[in-house]
Structures are given as structure tokens and as C-alpha cells.
Amino acid sequence: MSMRKFAVTPGFEVGGTMFRPEQLAVLGSVVGEDARIEMTSFKQLYVEMEEEQMEEAQRLLRAAGLQVHPAGFVTKSLIACHFCRGAEEAGLDVARALDEAIAGHPVPSPLRIGYAGCALGTSEPLLKDIAVIKMRDKYDMYVGGEPRGLKALLAKQLHAGLEAEELVPMIRSLIAIFQEQGKKKEKFSRFVDRITLEQLRKLTANARMEPAG
């Protein structure tokens, strides 16, 4: 019996990232008794199940409103705040666009990208590899956070005062740079230190104001 693993997430709404009871019921009914389900630190569920049944299971999960992503060394779905200031003020549509654009890209090591709709930062964005924080009508971007171990690090500011339409090109540029210049299994925080923040600013400068499509 061949087993394969994939990730499942509910996406996010005002109130945070939450699985609805009916979604969990569908998940439990379609993956089978032999499947293994693991909660990850990326606010995803990892599902390991029989490979020959996986395609149909994923189809049913998507029909229930769940998102299905690759597992392993890829960019993870956006880790967002609870949008406690409301959908419009906290930038829920911007966060959704980011989530759609970033998830599932192969990278040298798993990449966590966080979003906070205000300076309160309830999603702990500065502990993520890449972070976007909404500051009134603009956005600040940070890189190189590290949440684990005795050498936990706060992310450093890469760019300030970004427009909403600059965010997707900017993060795609960072992902591409990491794909091209990162070493296998190299943590993004170490990559930032090795490449240097100033060099990353130069390399991503051309991404500003590029079309998000």
C-alpha cells in the first residue's frame, strides 16, 4: 500500500483560520480509516493516505470549501491574523490574494509567510520567514524571523510603505530568489543573513509596482 501526504487548510475569514464542523466531517469521511492526520505549526492539517484514493478525496475536500496544497519543502499557505478590525480595514481581500499567489511553490526549506492587519500583530508576523503588516493604508514587509530554539529571531524590515498591488510581486520575487540562491534545507533566516538584508533590498527593488498577475 503506497501512502502519500498533502496539506489541507480552510483558508481564512474574519475571526481567523477555522475549520467548520461540516468540513471536518467531510475530511474524516473521505480520507479513510488508514489515513493519518497531523496538525502542523503552519495552521494546516497534513493528511497521509493511500495514493490511489487521494485524487478523489482531494476533489471532495475542495468541494467542501477546503484548500488542498502540497506537503513538504514548499511555501505554506498564508498564516494570517483574526482580522479583528474588520475585513476592509484589516485587508482581508489583500490577504486572500497573497494566499492564492504564494502557496505550494517548491523551496529549499519550508517557507512560512505571515500577515497581520494592524500593528497589534496577533498572528506573530515577526516570527515568520516573510511577514506583511498593514499600517493604515500601506504595508510593511519583514524577512528572516525564526520562532524556534534558543536563537529565536525577530524578522527585519525589508521594505516600508508598500502599496497593496506591490505585495504579490514582492513576495514572488523573494520566493524566486530563495529558489535560485538558497541551499538545500537552509532556513530562510540563515539565508537572509548570508545574502544580507541590503542585497535582498536591491534584488527585490525591481518588483515594486510590477503587475500582480
From TrEMBL:
Q: Name one Pfam family in it.
A: NIR_SIR
Residues annotated as coiled-coil are: none
User: Is Repeat a UniProt keyword of this protein?
Assistant: no
This chain's protein is named NAD(P)H-nitrite reductase large subunit
Gene3D superfamilies xrefs = Sulfite Reductase Hemoprotein, domain 1
Q: Which InterPro entries match?
A: NO2/SO3_Rdtase_4Fe4S_dom, NO2/SO3_Rdtase_4Fe4S_sf
UniProt entry keywords in alphabetical sequence: Iron, Iron-sulfur, Metal-binding
Annotated Nitrite/sulphite reductase 4Fe-4S domain residues: 93-206
